């Protein structure tokens, strides 16, 4: 980087046209990812609706299994795959195609290893739930759903890394189209397996597996075609130099990024499951748990936009750092955080306006809808912190500092949010609203800490130099020092 680098001419005061260009670049990536996330959300809702048509026992068993698989499986795979973001985005920025492709292969290998202990947990869901005091009939249905979902673990070892791999190269529309095609067939597939074939709960599980498999196959076909085009008709080899040594040698350093990324995501996901458990100890637990379920579904829906924004700004920051343009990376980070605050304000507004009617979309039970209405504004305020927090975590991943985000989530959710939630809900008798005030306190602490780390503690020129070291390590990446240095805050 020299004084002639155009990145240094405009880093102090970016012009409105530069901000507009960055907004165009960011949302050109984020809109298709948001649409894809919404389609994935719709797929999950369709599965729950078909479980509900089968009966209350099947719905309860399926819901229990979905919660268990999310906690023990999907959150772990998504979290580990996010460790690929800094390597792929920075490699793409520096046009290091070998490192880009090889990192994808390494992450697939890591996820495959992770599915082994996860599979053992899923196979033993029945004994685990019975040991925890769950109803035997509900547990039996949950175990059935979980067993038929096992192939989805292998599918996700391909699907999750492919999503990060493509997003890091600013390729988002093909992912949206692949998801659209797969989800379009999800409803008729459920109907055929559940209603026509009479497979029941197993049919719902198999339909989800097949839908994810369709997504993975289409994305993999696109990646093969893209690599063939980039390589002049030659597809990059899966096993480097024919023996796999190149893949395996770099697994350790990549794990140094994947594990903190996984912890950062899982610590947040798991907290919502803790809230569900805590709501079961409140007076009238059936109503409280039902209301919690609606609130978590609402949060999941609102999360689709900041999650897309976080993934895209991670790619943007990584691309610019890899290209040796630190101040363009800083501009991307600031523009994304500004967008996150706007999204948070929008969520505050609509949760206040529709607080009375929102719960009625899910249930006619007045006791549940009243409880939902009482905490909807609190949920909106939570999103005012969650949107910049989620986006900030994406920025930290783009700068290869996922461990910082993991520490922030641990401190905010478990050392701030949990004591406040338990104290207000049970100690001060705030009841159901006390749990969500706990979430609000966690999100405030998390957002402030993230913003300080991103805006106050980031040396963008230093991060660009670290990105150069990461890419200069070459495709072998056998030196853990270069990756560890790039991952330290």
From TrEMBL:
<feature type="transmembrane region" description="Helical">
    <location>
        <begin position="199"/>
        <end position="225"/>
    </location>
</feature>
<feature type="transmembrane region" description="Helical">
    <location>
        <begin position="26"/>
        <end position="51"/>
    </location>
</feature>
<feature type="transmembrane region" description="Helical">
    <location>
        <begin position="175"/>
        <end position="193"/>
    </location>
</feature>
<feature type="transmembrane region" description="Helical">
    <location>
        <begin position="368"/>
        <end position="387"/>
    </location>
</feature>
<keyword id="KW-1133">Transmembrane helix</keyword>
<dbReference type="Pfam" id="PF01554">
    <property type="entry name" value="MatE"/>
</dbReference>
<protein>
    <recommendedName>
        <fullName>Protein DETOXIFICATION</fullName>
    </recommendedName>
</protein>
<dbReference type="GO" id="GO:0042910">
    <property type="term" value="F:xenobiotic transmembrane transporter activity"/>
</dbReference>
<dbReference type="GO" id="GO:0016020">
    <property type="term" value="C:membrane"/>
</dbReference>
<feature type="transmembrane region" description="Helical">
    <location>
        <begin position="331"/>
        <end position="353"/>
    </location>
</feature>
<feature type="transmembrane region" description="Helical">
    <location>
        <begin position="246"/>
        <end position="272"/>
    </location>
</feature>
<feature type="transmembrane region" description="Helical">
    <location>
        <begin position="287"/>
        <end position="310"/>
    </location>
</feature>
<feature type="transmembrane region" description="Helical">
    <location>
        <begin position="104"/>
        <end position="123"/>
    </location>
</feature>
<feature type="transmembrane region" description="Helical">
    <location>
        <begin position="434"/>
        <end position="455"/>
    </location>
</feature>
<dbReference type="InterPro" id="IPR002528">
    <property type="entry name" value="MATE_fam"/>
</dbReference>
<feature type="transmembrane region" description="Helical">
    <location>
        <begin position="408"/>
        <end position="428"/>
    </location>
</feature>
<dbReference type="GO" id="GO:1990961">
    <property type="term" value="P:xenobiotic detoxification by transmembrane export across the plasma membrane"/>
</dbReference>
<keyword id="KW-0472">Membrane</keyword>
<comment type="similarity">
    <text>Belongs to the multi antimicrobial extrusion (MATE) (TC 2.A.66.1) family.</text>
</comment>
<dbReference type="InterPro" id="IPR045069">
    <property type="entry name" value="MATE_euk"/>
</dbReference>
<keyword id="KW-0812">Transmembrane</keyword>
<feature type="transmembrane region" description="Helical">
    <location>
        <begin position="63"/>
        <end position="84"/>
    </location>
</feature>
<dbReference type="GO" id="GO:0015297">
    <property type="term" value="F:antiporter activity"/>
</dbReference>
